[in-house]
Design a protein that fits this description.
The complex is a heterodimer.
Chain A lengths: L8 H23 L1 E3 H10 L12 H13 L6 H11 L4 H9 L10 H35 L7 E6 L4 H13 L4 E4 L27 H18 L4 E5 L5 H10 L4 E3 L4 H6 L3 H18 L2 E3 L5 H4 L6 H17 L7 E2 L1 E3 L9 H15 L6 E3 L9 H17 L4 E3 L12 H18 L13 H23 L1 H6 L19 E3 L7 H11 L2 H9 L6
Parallel strand pairs in A: 2-3, 2-10, 3-4, 4-5, 5-6, 6-7, 8-9, 9-10
Antiparallel strand pairs in A: 1-11
Chain B lengths: L4 E2 L10 E8 L6 H17 L2 E12 L3 E10 L3 E2 L3 E4 L8 H11 L4 E7 L7 H7 L16 E5 L6 H11 L3 E5 L7 H15 L6 E5 L8 H4 L3 E3 L5 H12 L13 E4 L5
Parallel strand pairs in B: 7-8, 7-9, 9-10, 10-11
Antiparallel strand pairs in B: 1-5, 2-4, 3-4, 6-12
Helix pairs in contact in B: 2-7
The chains are: A alpha/beta, B alpha/beta.
Amino acid sequence: MKPRLQLDPAVVREARELAARAGQPIVDMARTHTTVSVERAVLRLAGLQGADAEGMPWVNRLVDAVRQSVGLEHGVALPAWDAMATAGLPDLARLAEAAAQGKVEFRIPAGDDARTARAVASAALAGGIGKIDANRAMRQRLIDETAEPPKPWIYLIVATGDIYEDIPQAQAAAREGADIIAVIRSTGQSLLDYVPEGATREGFAGTYATQENFRLMRAALDQTSRELGRYVRLTNYASGLCMPEIASLAGLERLDMMLNDCMYGIIFRDINPRRTFIDQRFSRQIHARAGIIINTGEDNYLTTADAVDAAHTVVVSQLMNEFFGKEAGLADSQLGLGHAFEINPEVPDSFLLELAHAQLVRELFPDAPLKYMPPTKHMTGNVFAGYLLDAFFNLCGVMTDQSILLIGMMTEGIHTPFLSDRDLALENVRYVRDAAGRLGESFVPAPGGFIQRRAAHVLGESVALLRRICDEGLLNAIADGTFGITRRPADGGRGLDGVISRADGYFNPASDILDGGVRGHPADSAASMSGTGARS
Amino acid sequence: MTGNIVRPYGDTTGDGRVQVSFTLPVPFGTPTEKTRAEGAAMQLAVKMGLDPAMVVHAKGMGPDFTFFIVYGRVSHLVDLSEVTVAEREFPLLSSAEVNLRIRTGLGRKLVVVGACIGTDAHTVGIDAILNVKGHAGEKGLEYYREIRVVNLGSQVAVPDLVARASAEGADAVLVSQVVTQRDAHISNAREMAAAFSAAGPGRPLLVVGGPRFDPATAPSLGVDKIFGKGTTPREVASYLACALAPGGAGGVRPADKVTTVEAGAA
């Protein structure tokens, strides 16, 4: 990637410093709190699966039982493993069943009992994290065995609601050229405070994210990867009230990419801001460990706000996502920062504006696998015009070296894509890639010309907004409706009752291992904080 | 009146030329398969009334499917006098028009309180209408600058809903009901309507929605409006703006009307 915009390195540095300053208080909060979903994730990582007769997962039952009895200020692990030893139960599943029947007494152990409980819990979590490590190695082995597809990776969505319908559709999409399959979740799964169990065949405009569905789809795509001689990645959504649990399941079942934005749930789903940020840090630590690429959701802002006026809010959110991501241990190569081609095509010079925005993001984050989203807002029922717009999106994507292209459908907003819509969309991107894939090397915007000026302007607006956020505090800025126009107060929204302040002696054997991992890369995060200009 | 009879226009008046595209689950690999696939497309085109038809493009998609683009001439006549335009009782407005109508007609924010009542924990419907995220490519009511949304979530008791609606100064109450065992959705809606009536005059506009409601039964349930399956946030916003800010600006355009073509000329 060569620089094309002559960005002022001092401005870029300032932007990163401001993002770090705005984000640090949030990180401090996340480090001193836990949530019911973080604690449930600990149990999932230790291998607790299954649900009771009503379909409520045992992890929910057990965490609720511990909370009612001794609270979660010390974490679920200490009282759970202590109770297991005291009651002589062989595993977490038996403990959860017994606790649900009210047959278990929990306590916060001290002395040798506490040391024993900690040791056994730590060993259990080492096993769970070990599975994630093994999956990461397995992914690399499969990539070596097959092949890493060239970028941009082509990202296609399936969403039938029935995992057994999704599988053949995903395999067909991969054969047609998709490098990444995303299984859209059932509408509103974000708002469920539990993760459904088992293989599911009914969803609302999407398929539930469950451990078994993850496993089934990954196994099918492994088969297809071998058949095609190219590793096909699988994506799902770590957002909503169960973000840490979904992230953990993704690590345990070797998903490759996860949608995981720092503010999406707050803005678009009215999930409590504190809950979101605490859940998010743990989720990103898991993703970092699992080698999962996160995808952030800045494209969503442009579906509610104007893509020209709000271009800088995308950059600000990306810088925040970068700060939070790196703090949690994610490498540049795991930061799939999102943006989108959403400018009204009737705006004069709209394509030049798109090029300026896309190139700005590319240059600010030169080593990130950027995820570029196709037009949706200005796709009309005119499928012929839509096909042209998608071609310009693809062209902008290859000219500015985007890493992941979500393939636009000319029937966007009309219906779930027909087989032929998908085929035509792939024909479109293949043509642009073959015809203009190397255009980037000759794309040199005129010094001081429209594109350079526009990029500098958006960067300047981003710095101004970041200054305001630093003055106000990020939580206040969110409460004031800075992002996506919606006001989200820090104490409003869903899930605040699941936030718990950590006591002295809080014990989370998963975090102990994962925090160790973060501490292992101090140079990495220091470099990202101070920044070295556009680093290109 | 001859002006009432028209035909599709390709490049000459009355030539009847149209274009269609479709996929058939037939292979397009060997020469024999290709010939057979194009014949299959021709057969469908002719049955659809395209005569003569011309398959201008055929492409295999994977081992089992073929995509076709077909041009042809239809002999059907369109009788404009038989086209009936059924107008919605309220116009479908854009978000800008909804906001404008509320601003000019109401002069303040329109307050909506939403909930799932009774034992119903399925908030999918109410969230699709209220959350910014929205549904079917449309943003939810939270997205509208002139609407203030209070979403109470699931399993809200009717007395709590009435109290909260009063405290918030609700202009409209939206209730979603998915669970329908023993017609729970109907009894819950009736109970809610009765509770609001009992609370005194000047009750908010009562709107219920859910996949099993019959939109024609609003009066018998005692509510003002029922939205059925497939309702989008924009429809609800348009209805609320028109019902609660009737004097406001924010106009009707011809494209907002629903056009239904009666079966004819077949």
